[in-house]
């Protein structure tokens, strides 16, 4: 088609040259750097940091640069060119999305278009608003109806932009009995409208959703349109499902949006176009009111906002636009069909045939055939127990969502909290696939990751209640209920000086928990342990992580308690030992000083004179007696060193106390990690084999140690060879009964050797 305007012809020629430059540059870059894009060749701090925007992204960015150059044209040429760009873009959008005879308003802020529409509705319904202003609104207050599932902060934004008080907003609840819990309750809305009319208010505008911000559900737009026509209310529709209007098959609920008064769309995320404005399509016959409301403008700069989208739509073409939206919907259908085959995953989808948004969550309330999961909470369950189960499931779903986001970043998942369903994971490829380049292989990888995480979630759920009961039944441990922790549980060790009446920082408790964390991590088990919380105003706790296999909770809790108790006793012993050593040093200094004074008195004064003492010592030498003090750490007593110099050996002292250990020890198989629960058969086999092995070792030691022991005892009784001593007879009888172990007599053997 020939372009009559020479300015447009010249612009088209320049665009062709720019596109050729882009294609040549990209081809040359791909040949040099493989798959590296042009954006990576930007020098400076941006090099390597710009995401993959593709050729269509470069076209959108080129539109901003062209807009700056076009603004320098002659006013008449500029007016014609901007009008042509605006009209072409509006016509294309209306045809692509089936919105006949509409006008378009391009805006950077997504909510700005709705604010302009509200002003247009006010000027249309209040004829004297331009003259009387707020007095007209005061006499008959306008009412704006928003769904309870609308995006957060939308009502407050509208009131701030329009200067209206918050009572002008009316929150319409969603269905509670029939239909989707994320759809507007039409019957209740009609009741609200009737009540407002009776009170002298003016129902002004209704905001419906074609794909809610959370789960992508669509309101009954056809029924809402009939209600709005009945009461003269402006109907505005927004949502991600409006993108499906470009496809060949459209659900009836979304198709009804083409009959509304206005709609807001975001083609930038849908098509993967950066820096592209949002578009609000509307129908109105009075250009003066649209000018007053700010929907139209005579400034060329405002009309040039459509230039990036104008270039991108021409570059993609109708087939390219439809292909991108269709690909996103196919990704959603692929994930939805795959998740139906995965156990314990609940899908929150309104329309299984055409929903472009998939919301799912890990669901534990399944039939009682599986012992891992509990059934629906019984009526006799307390609300606190139900709430605890809800928070517990929310924490697991939050962990699952974060894990999936890290493992499959191209999926563009979002973790969100829903009032009715709790924490869920959302997959909305219409908003992310074009930018992230999501493919079908990414969806398959996502499903595989979900299946790999299910055993971890199942084991953790199974062990939580058992862990809580064991901790509550163990002395010295306190169970901490933290609903945001996705692991097995949280436990805190209460030491002797723990002040339970306050939540202030506890240095001694922090020291014990830090040592406990170090000890548990040294065991190299499959469990992860952490110390928290990070807030210093709270006491330290031990957080036990997710369980990937069947864990022996009893052994785990006893190990935690025994290890913490051992750390506390060792720290207390060290503190006591420090004080005892300090006092012992002081006492030793005093005794050594007294010993020096006694030595001076025994030797006499003459021996202390240098020359006389040497002569006297030559004639009458003095036998030197070395005296000192040794400190027994085990007994905590100060002893003399005289036996060391006389007998040339140190005393045995007091036997140190045994190291505290757990009350329950478990025989592990070779290669078995700590806290693993073995099968009953293997446990019985391992215990039997270990017991028999120990008995065999005892027999070997008994036979090998018997003759030597009897020889030593015989040598000690050489004076009476005829009759054995009573002690020897008793030991022989005890040895026959198996009550005397060879290792018990080791100290006696050493004593006999020394006497020999």
Automatic annotation (TrEMBL):
<dbReference type="GO" id="GO:0019752">
    <property type="term" value="P:carboxylic acid metabolic process"/>
</dbReference>
<feature type="compositionally biased region" description="Basic and acidic residues">
    <location>
        <begin position="727"/>
        <end position="744"/>
    </location>
</feature>
<protein>
    <recommendedName>
        <fullName>Pyridoxal-dependent decarboxylase domain-containing protein 1</fullName>
    </recommendedName>
</protein>
<feature type="compositionally biased region" description="Basic and acidic residues">
    <location>
        <begin position="693"/>
        <end position="702"/>
    </location>
</feature>
<keyword id="KW-0210">Decarboxylase</keyword>
<dbReference type="GO" id="GO:0030170">
    <property type="term" value="F:pyridoxal phosphate binding"/>
</dbReference>
<feature type="domain" description="PDXDC1/PDXD2 second">
    <location>
        <begin position="355"/>
        <end position="461"/>
    </location>
</feature>
<dbReference type="InterPro" id="IPR002129">
    <property type="entry name" value="PyrdxlP-dep_de-COase"/>
</dbReference>
<feature type="region of interest" description="Disordered">
    <location>
        <begin position="650"/>
        <end position="756"/>
    </location>
</feature>
<dbReference type="GO" id="GO:0016831">
    <property type="term" value="F:carboxy-lyase activity"/>
</dbReference>
<keyword id="KW-0175">Coiled coil</keyword>
<feature type="domain" description="PDXDC1-like third">
    <location>
        <begin position="467"/>
        <end position="572"/>
    </location>
</feature>
<dbReference type="Pfam" id="PF22937">
    <property type="entry name" value="PDXDC1-like_cen2"/>
</dbReference>
<keyword id="KW-0456">Lyase</keyword>
<keyword id="KW-0663">Pyridoxal phosphate</keyword>
<feature type="coiled-coil region">
    <location>
        <begin position="8"/>
        <end position="35"/>
    </location>
</feature>
<comment type="similarity">
    <text>Belongs to the group II decarboxylase family.</text>
</comment>
<dbReference type="Pfam" id="PF00282">
    <property type="entry name" value="Pyridoxal_deC"/>
</dbReference>
<dbReference type="Pfam" id="PF22930">
    <property type="entry name" value="PDXDC1-like_cen"/>
</dbReference>
<dbReference type="InterPro" id="IPR015421">
    <property type="entry name" value="PyrdxlP-dep_Trfase_major"/>
</dbReference>
<dbReference type="InterPro" id="IPR055102">
    <property type="entry name" value="PDXDC1-like_3rd"/>
</dbReference>
<dbReference type="InterPro" id="IPR055103">
    <property type="entry name" value="PDXDC1-like_2nd"/>
</dbReference>
<dbReference type="InterPro" id="IPR050477">
    <property type="entry name" value="GrpII_AminoAcid_Decarb"/>
</dbReference>
<feature type="coiled-coil region">
    <location>
        <begin position="578"/>
        <end position="605"/>
    </location>
</feature>
<dbReference type="InterPro" id="IPR015424">
    <property type="entry name" value="PyrdxlP-dep_Trfase"/>
</dbReference>
């Amino acid at each position: 088609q020939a372009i009559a305007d020479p300015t447009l012809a010249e612009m088209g020629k320049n665009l062709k040259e720019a596109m050729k430059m882009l294609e040549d540059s990209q081809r040359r870059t791909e040949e040099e750097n493989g798959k590296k894009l042009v954006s990576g060749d930007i020098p400076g701090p941006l090099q390597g940091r710009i995401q993959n925007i593709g050729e269509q992204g470069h076209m959108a960015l080129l539109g901003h640069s062209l807009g700056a150059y076009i603004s320098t044209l002659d006013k008449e040429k500029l007016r014609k060119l901007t009008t042509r760009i605006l009209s072409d873009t509006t016509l294309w959008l209306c045809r692509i999305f089936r919105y006949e005879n509409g006008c378009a308003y391009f805006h950077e802020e997504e909510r700005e278009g709705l604010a302009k529409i509200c002003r247009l509705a006010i000027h249309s319904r209040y004829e004297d608003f331009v003259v009387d202003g707020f007095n007209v609104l005061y006499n008959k207050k306008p009412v704006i109806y928003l769904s309870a599932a609308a995006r957060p902060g939308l009502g407050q934004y509208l009131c701030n932009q329009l200067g209206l008080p918050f009572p002008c907003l009316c929150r319409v609840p969603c269905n509670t009995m029939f239909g989707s819990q994320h759809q507007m309750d039409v019957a209740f809305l009609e009741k609200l409208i009737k009540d407002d009319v009776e009170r002298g208010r003016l129902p002004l505008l209704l905001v419906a959703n074609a794909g809610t911000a959370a789960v992508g559900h669509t309101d009954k737009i056809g029924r809402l349109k009939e209600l709005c026509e009945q009461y003269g209310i402006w109907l505005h529709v927004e949502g991600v499902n409006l993108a499906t209007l470009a496809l060949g098959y459209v659900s009836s609920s979304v198709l009804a949006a083409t009959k509304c008064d206005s709609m807001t769309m975001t083609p930038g995320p849908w098509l993967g176009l950066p820096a592209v404005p949002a578009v609000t399509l509307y129908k109105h016959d009075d250009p003066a009111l649209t000018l007053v409301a700010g929907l139209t403008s005579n400034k060329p700069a405002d009309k040039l906002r459509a230039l990036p989208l104008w270039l991108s739509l021409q570059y993609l073409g109708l087939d390219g636009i439809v292909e991108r939206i269709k690909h996103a919907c196919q990704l959603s259908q692929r994930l939805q069909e795959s998740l139906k085959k995965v156990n314990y995953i609940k899908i929150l989808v309104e329309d299984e045939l055409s929903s472009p948004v998939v919301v799912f969550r890990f669901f534990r309330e399944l039939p009682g055939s599986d012992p891992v999961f509990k059934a629906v909470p019984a009526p006799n369950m307390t609300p606190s127990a139900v709430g605890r189960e809800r928070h517990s499931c929310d924490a697991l779903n939050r962990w699952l969502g974060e894990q999936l986001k890290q493992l499959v970043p191209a999926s563009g998942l979002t973790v969100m909290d829903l009032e009715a369903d709790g924490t869920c994971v959302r997959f909305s490829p219409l908003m992310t696939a074009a930018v992230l380049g999501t493919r079908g292989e990414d969806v398959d990888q996502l499903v595989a990751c979900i299946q790999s995480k299910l055993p971890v979630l199942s084991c953790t759920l199974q062990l939580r209640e058992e862990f809580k009961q064991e901790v509550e039944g163990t002395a010295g441990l306190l169970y901490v209920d933290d609903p945001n922790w996705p692991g097995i549980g949280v436990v805190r060790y209460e030491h002797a000086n723990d002040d339970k009446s306050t939540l202030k920082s506890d240095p001694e408790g922090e020291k014990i928990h830090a040592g406990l964390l170090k000890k548990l991590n040294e065991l190299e088990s499959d469990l992860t342990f952490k110390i928290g919380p990070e807030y210093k105003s709270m006491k330290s706790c031990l957080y036990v992580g997710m369980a990937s296999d069947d864990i022996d909770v009893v052994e785990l809790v006893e190990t935690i308690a025994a290890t913490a108790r051992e750390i506390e006793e060792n720290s207390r012993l060290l503190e006591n030992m420090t004080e005892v050593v300090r006092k012992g040093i002081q006492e030793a200094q005093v005794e050594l000083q007294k010993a020096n004074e006694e030595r001076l008195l025994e030797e006499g004064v003459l021996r202390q004179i240098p020359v006389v003492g040497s002569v006297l010592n030559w004639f009458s030498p003095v036998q030197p007696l070395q005296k000192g003090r040794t400190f027994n750490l085990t007994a905590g007593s100060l002893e003399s060193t005289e036996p060391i110099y006389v007998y040339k050996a140190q005393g045995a002292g007091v036997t140190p106390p045994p190291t505290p250990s757990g009350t329950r020890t478990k025989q592990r198989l070779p290669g078995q990690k700590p806290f693993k629960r073995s099968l009953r058969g293997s446990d019985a086999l391992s215990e039997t084999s270990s017991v028999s092995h120990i008995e065999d070792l005892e027999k070997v030691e008994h036979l090998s140690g018997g003759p030597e022991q009897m020889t030593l005892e015989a040598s000690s009784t050489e004076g009476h060879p005829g009759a054995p001593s009573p002690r020897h007879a008793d030991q022989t009888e005890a040895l026959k009964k198996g009550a005397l172990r060879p290792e018990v007599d080791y100290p006696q053997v050493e004593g006999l050797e020394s006497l020999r």
